[in-house]
Amino acid sequence: MTVPAWYDTFTDAIAAGEPQCLACAACGDASLPPRQVCPACGSTELTAEPLSGRGTILSFTEISVTTPKFHGETPYTVVMSELDEGVVLSGQLREATAADVAIGEPVVLDTETRADGPALITFRPADAEATDTGDRDDA
Amino acid sequence: MPATIASGASTTYGDHAESSSRELFGEVALEALDSAGLTPTDLDAVYVGNFMGDLIEDQGHMGPLLADAIGAPETASVRFESACASGGATFRQAVLAIESGAADAVLAGGVELMSLADIEHVTDALANAADEMYENEQGLTFPGIYALMARRYMHEFDVSREDLAAVSVKNHANAVANPLAQFQRELTVEEVVESKPIATPLALYDACPVSDGASAVVVVSEAFAAARDLDPVASVLGTGQSSDALALHDRGSISRTPAAARAAQEAYREAGVTVNDVDVAEVHDCFTIAEVMALEALGAYDPGAGARGAVDGETAVDGSFPVNPSGGLLGKGHPVGATGIGQLVELTKQLRGVHPNQVTDAAVALAHNVGGSGASATVTILGGV
User: What pTM was estimated for this model as a whole?
Assistant: First the structure.
């Protein structure tokens, strides 16, 4: 597949330890690239801002039936996490299995390279002690 | 110009691997035209719902292909694609064409051939309904995305896997009496919960099967029906459609489907009815959790209470709010592009009093069709004639 340049930019920044999101100058909403318009307020004043890379698990699933790209890698777990800045994204769980994690537990964002395509977004459990703060304000 | 459904037809849903889209579509389109007393040259347009023909059959541009297949090669034809809501979206475009006065007679059909591919390639094709970079390239699958919704829902509302399984048990039981249905076997809650995991907490029988099939309806203006002395099978009381962010993580909540709620409100408003007036509903239960969220989006249950419908028997054929008497996507099958049209074919039978799982005195019927994890949604409300 053709990997869009924005995705490489996004994951390269994570790999370099300097992850970034977009922040809206008008309303402060944080979102994932690429966007021209703030999804919360419609403003076009979006700027790149640093992401902490720390978040909590909103949900997770252990996948047993997959696509040809991930053939032979099942089962693996995908977690959806809300980062401290408010953006939500999904990535594969590392250094733990589905049995080890729960909604609300803290995770850390990372990436890993793959031989056959774009970098994978990953999360691993944070060293900090788990706290159940998984309920989203806007849910 | 009010729209009515002159006729409808549907293949069985299931394994038609020896057939093709043009044969399946042709079968239902010609049957529907014949039962309406019309010919292909009476049509002002042929609208086709199809999602993955490009990927499974290597066939795009299905509009002219299928219009030609039914003997209407010169008729304006378009394929509409809104993932698993392709059928509902196709029907709505036909209704809008009639209501605007631009057309008097439109064939709205849908077709999908899925069983030609192995399970990993079908999973890959279905994943095209999701965000390629942020979802699919991270290893999420379509069941995986619904699994994220299911786990979050179960966390927020203290709903069990057994509660969700009750939806599958109900719909598989309904499918047994429906000769068009793919599954003809009842399941127990235990069988659903202990079936093979596909994306935890969802297992095989929490999910709809891989299906082939086609469905079609002929949509005409009331004036055309009167002038041609047709005998319509349903009137279109209202339609609604809404969208949402494609990726699940870009929505405000992952345990609700607000686009479907907006589509329902629009359809209720146009029809001049409330959810309390609905006698029977066919909803998009691609997974057990999807029917639960559908009931809440339609306003039939408060958030967190939708699972009670199947558990308490309220959504059974003889319940207070019958849902998916056809067997639904879980029991009847889900040939993606055909599904939204097939729901309407089922409901016209309810409104005529001839459905194998007939709801007593069904006068107002609702169809709810969702694409992706909720980014596309259509709601249609039909009345008897």
Answer: 0.96
